[in-house]
From TrEMBL:
It comes from the Archaea. The keyword Ubl conjugation does not apply. PANTHER family: COLANIC ACID BIOSYNTHESIS PROTEIN WCAK. The lineage of its organism: Archaea, Methanobacteriati, Methanobacteriota, Methanomada group, Methanobacteria. It comes from Methanobacterium lacus (strain AL-21). GO terms for molecular function: transferase activity. Keywords: Transferase. Residues 33-350 form the Polysaccharide pyruvyl transferase domain. This is Polysaccharide pyruvyl transferase.
């Protein structure tokens, strides 16, 4: 098999890549995944032509069809929750496999997602089909999953990471496959014309008399994750059988404390700075926390929820770019708002947002690590309040910093398709 693999790679120039698999977190009503998938489809069609046959597997066909149109050149393929056999059969029919999920090499959300990407990589390797991880991230991994990543990711022909930090983490684990770093595909995402003024339209439908500015909060319940595999469990904790959210009395209490602190900060911003609050759900799964925050607010009439369950990626991106300030626990909220130089503060619970902020050198100024130790939580929220006040009162320096960061990230993001084209047709040394 190794000889066959090398032979295939030696003849890459003459290979015709007519069928491409896009393996990711597709169909989850997740704004980040939506923007990435749309941007990656454009990249592939730029490199391989409009007639390339694309296959997109999904656990939720209905959601995926909200933003991806199936036609003679693009096929949506439903797969079961226990996906091993189905993915193996799908991979067999491809000329090229791309791993397109940003949260590729991490088990923060669930080991099952990580295993799906590693299994796809193994299937491609065994079939002698090139496999590329396309602008992906790495993060926290259990000891067992580090072993799996080291073993299976080495079978990837090229890994393109979206931060240098992600590249370094994979190298530290022991991954020897070629790895280059660029920036996330969503930096080149273009919104649709009809999405212009989305925030004004959404807000005015409920609050026609309001004229104050807007502060956005892109929230995520850290205490739901990871999703775990169980044969049965409480229906309220079911993600999609056999996957259940991690819930316990302690986790529920911490979730309640999280919503309470968000609500308190939202009310403080309304009272001190006379701003409206937009609670942004970058994934539909964030809605329960968003609803809880709004319900806990004293000034709930000054808040509105904007969710990926209702609005598409273009609309949410336009909302993000219309803010005066963004407080975000979601990676792609930070990414998508940068084009408008929106000042932002990150509250991170994993390595993705931290990695982005480290790459663009704003980690010390604008990033807050959310602690595992519950006794330190109050300190974090006091620190956040201080940063919020500073940015609302004096945003100029940070806006300029974000503007420069965005320009650099767009340049790096454009390298994604350059590396893809180089690997497929020129096959020069891609290491940097």
């Amino acid at each position: 098999m190794e000889t066959e693999k090398n032979k295939l790679k030696d003849n890459t120039n003459s290979k015709k890549f007519k069928k491409v698999l896009l393996m990711g977190y597709n169909g989850a009503n997740n704004t980040g995944s939506e923007t990435r998938l749309i941007s990656i489809i454009e990249d592939i069609r730029t490199v391989l032509g409009k007639d390339v046959k694309l296959t997109i597997p999904t656990l939720n066909e209905k959601n995926l069809r909200r933003y991806i149109e199936e036609d003679e050149h693009l096929k949506i393929v439903p797969i079961p929750s226990i996906y091993f056999f189905a993915l193996k059969e799908i991979v067999k029919k491809q000329d090229l496999v791309l791993l397109v999920e940003g949260s590729c090499y991490m088990d923060t959300w669930t080991s099952a997602l990580l295993w799906a990407f590693l299994w796809t990589t193994r299937c491609a390797y065994n079939q002698g089909i090139p496999c590329i991880a396309y602008a992906v991230d790495s993060g926290e991994l259990s000891r067992f999953n580090k072993f799996l990543v080291k073993k299976e990711a080495n079978k990837t022909d090229l890994i393109i990471t979206r931060t240098t930090y992600a590249r370094e983490r994979l190298i530290d684990i022991g991954v020897k496959a070629p790895i280059v770093s660029t920036a996330d595909c969503a930096f080149t995402f273009e919104t649709k014309l009809e999405a212009k003024n989305s925030l004004k339209k959404i807000w005015n439908s409920e609050n026609p008399a309001s004229t104050e500015g807007f502060v956005g909060m892109a929230v995520v319940d850290f205490h739901l994750w990871p999703v775990v595999i169980r044969p049965w469990g409480r229906k309220v904790n079911l993600y999609k059988w056999p996957y259940y959210f991690s819930r316990s009395r302690s986790r529920v209490l911490r979730s309640e404390n999280l919503s309470r602190n968000w609500a308190r900060e939202a009310d403080r911003i309304v009272e001190l700075h006379s701003k409206n609050i937009i609670i942004i759900c970058m994934e539909e799964l964030d809605e329960p926390l968003a609803i809880e925050i709004k319900n806990r607010m004293k000034h709930s009439e000054k808040a509105q929820i904007v969710s990926a369950g209702t609005y598409n990626a273009s609309q949410i991106t336009e909302v993000l770019r219309s803010l005066e300030l963004l407080i975000t626990s979601r990676y792609h909220a930070g990414v998508l708002s940068m084009k408008a130089s929106v000042p932002q503060i990150g509250i991170g619970h994993d390595q993705r947002l931290k990695g982005l902020y480290k790459d663009i050198k704003i980690e010390k100024e604008l990033f807050i690590d959310y602690p595992e130790d519950n006794s330190k939580v109050e300190v974090i929220w006091k620190s956040l309040s201080k940063k919020v006040d500073q940015l609302i009162e004096n945003p100029k320096h940070t806006k300029e910093l974000i503007r420069k960061c965005y320009q650099k990230q767009v340049e790096l993001s454009l390298n994604n398709k350059k590396y893809l084209k180089n690997f497929l047709f020129e096959h020069e040394d891609v290491m940097v």
